[in-house]
Amino acid sequence: MSMRMIIQGAKPLYGEISVSGMKNAALPILFATILVKDVCVLDNIPNVSDISTTLDLLSQMGAKITRSARNTVLIDTTHIEEGTSPDELVRRLRGSSYLLGAELGRFGRSRIAWPGGCDFGGTRPLDLHLKGFRALGAKTDTEGGFISAEAENGLVGGSVYFDIASVGATVNVILASVLAEGTTVIDNAAREPHIVDLANFLNACGADIVGAGTSVIKIHGVTALKGCSYTIIPDMIEAGTYMAAVAATGGCVRVRSVIPKHVESITTKLCEMGVQVTEEDDSVLVQSNRPLNNVNIQTLCYPGFPTDMHPQFAVLLCIANGIGSIHEGVWSNRFRYAEELTKMGAKIMVDSQNATVVGVEKLTGATVEATDLRAGAALVIAGLCAEGTTEIRGVRYIQRGYDSIVEKLRGIGAEIEEKYIDEETTESIPKAN
Ligand code: EPZ
Asked: What is the DSSP secondary structure assignment for residue 4, as one 8-state letter?
């Protein structure tokens, strides 16, 4: 049995839609609880499969986890045991690389299976993470599909410069250094809002981290952390995805539970395309009357335009006037969605890390396949604005990072449903709500 999304497109969207907590902030914070050895209450945890995999993983390691409400998780890592991470779950997630920093910080060593996660068709190295651990005195090794790091004499603060402002490496060095002796300095650190959220959570537990959100982060080691209650920030990429959906279909939607500053680069590009975006206290109002203007997009680290919004904006360029372009500046290959959009009538030419997109009058519904999370989100937007019926396969990728996407989009007037298909009989069974 596999899940499909079926969309009847070309319908403008109206109303209000709410954004959930940010997956990419919740992931490091969940792994950071390993350092706490106490009870943490985490609110605004999104209901997405990457998070349920992480909760399963931590629970198999001995964490006591209870859900007190749909989006609230109590997690007690007092009795977690070192070296017990289940390989199969680690291999499902990129975020499981955070086990390295967290276990190193708590136990002085870690050995995990090579983490999985969305596959963009290129490599997703971890050399900067390991460079960071070595700067704290750990020895590292990558052999036989496993990664290990060990600090025989304990971790001691050090300085590390990242050639690339890697989100994952910044998270991992923060995790490893919070309980280390002395001060650690990360230079050219990632500045993403989820880094700030992780630092705020750890500081609420008693850590001493300064500079998160800038490119120099200093971590003064402390001897122990205590539990706290913490609310995860809203997901700027989920917000941006719904903003792009309204831009594509036309209509008027208030996207709620947003930190407008976090979506500034997305708002700016939408305005260049002729979409009206009004920032409110904790929401943005998006009004769109197609046609859209073409633009050139270059993805960069925060506060630049996010790579995780690139595929969704490619769809907007497909239906904009004239010719637009995208330069992917973070990942070496993130264009696997282009072939799928072509099946819907798009004209996209990909050359290395660049795409040229010639706007067409309309996209037409087709059967398409999501190849990763944001590619899947792009296909949903394409289906919403296309004429006719779109069937999306590979829905499991979309479920990794979008909480209740079908229900939320239905709430603003989209005709979208999920169906289980029995592969053998190809009979379709509607999903129970
Ligand atoms: C995080 O991945 C996100 N994942 C990604 O979101 C996101 O695309 C990416 O940051 C960039 O914003 C999570 O937060 C779980 P990086 P991460 O380390 O940490 C190179 C989504 O759709 N690099 O910042 O793996 C790397 O090859 C996902 O939600 C090294 O060279 O990304 C890339 O070119 C997909 N060596 C660049 O840095 C390293 O050791 C940025 O990667 C690490 C990274």
From this structure: E
Ligand 1 centroid from CA 266, angstroms: 19
| Index of the ligand 1 atom closest to the CA of residue 306 | 12
Going by alpha carbons, the residue nearest to atom 1 of ligand 1 is 167
Report the share of the chain in percent with pLDDT over 70: 96
Minimal CA–CA distance to 375: which of 311, 328, 299? 311
- The 3-state secondary structure of 159-200 reads EEECCCCCHHHHHHHHHHHCCCECEEEEECCCCCHHHHHHHH
Residue 375 has pLDDT above 90, yes or no: yes
| CA atoms within a 13 Å half-sphere pointing along the CA-CB vector of 72 | 7
Q: pLDDT band for 123, please (50, 70, 90 cuts).
A: low
Closest residue by Cα to atom 38, ligand 1, is: 166
> pTM (2 decimals)?
0.96
**Atom nearest to 128 CA in ligand 1:** 40
pLDDT computed for residue 8 by the predictor = 98
Q: Which of 6, 13, 8 is nearest to 241 (CA)?
A: 13
Same domain as 245, residue 199: no
- Using the mean position of ligand 1's atoms as its centre, give its distance from the Cα of residue 166 in Å: 6
- Closest ligand 1 atom to Cα of 307: 8
Query: Which residue range forms the structural domain that includes residue 224?
Result: 23-231
Query: From the candidates 40, 118, 228, 301, which is the catalytic residue?
Result: 118
Shared domain for 49 and 190, answered yes or no, is yes
What is the whole-number distance in angstroms between the Cα of residue 326 and the centre of ligand 1?
Answer: 18
Number of domains observed in the structure of the chain: 2
CA distances to 96, 133, 196, 199 from 31, in Å? 8, 17, 15, 13
271 in active site = no
What is the model's pLDDT at position 332?
Answer: 85
